[in-house]
Amino acid sequence: MADDRREVVVTDIKIPFVSMVILLVKWAVAAIPALFILFIIGGLLSMILGLIFGTGWHHWGMGTSM
User: Fold this and answer.
1) Is residue 59's pLDDT more than 70?
2) For residue range 11-41, what is the model confidence (pLDDT) as tens digits?
3) Contact indicator for 63, 57 with CB cutoff of 8 Å
């Protein structure tokens, strides 16, 4: 019973062109909110790391007054 594993090799998938285009458009539309959420998470993470390690605008010359 330990060797009941079966391997499957897929050689061809037949899908109409229009169906594939619709699927790819759906993926592209679904990626927009996902990227928006990832940008928000990345921004929050960089703000937290900036607060922890104290990197701010003054290191880039923006915080100096002339």
Assistant:
1) no
2) 988 999 999 999 999 999 999 999 999 999 9
3) yes
Contacts made by residues 17-26, CB under 8 angstroms, sequence distance 24+: none
Nearest to 65 by CA among 57, 55, 53, 47: 57
Please state the pTM of the whole predicted model.
0.52
The sign of the dihedral angle between the CA atoms of 13, 18, 19, 22 is positive
10: pLDDT strictly greater than 70:
yes
| DSSP per-residue letters across 21-45 | HHHHHHHHHHHHHHHHHHHHHHHHH
Whole-number Cα distances in Å, 8 to 26, 46, 62: 28, 44, 60
Indicate the domain borders of the chain: 19-52
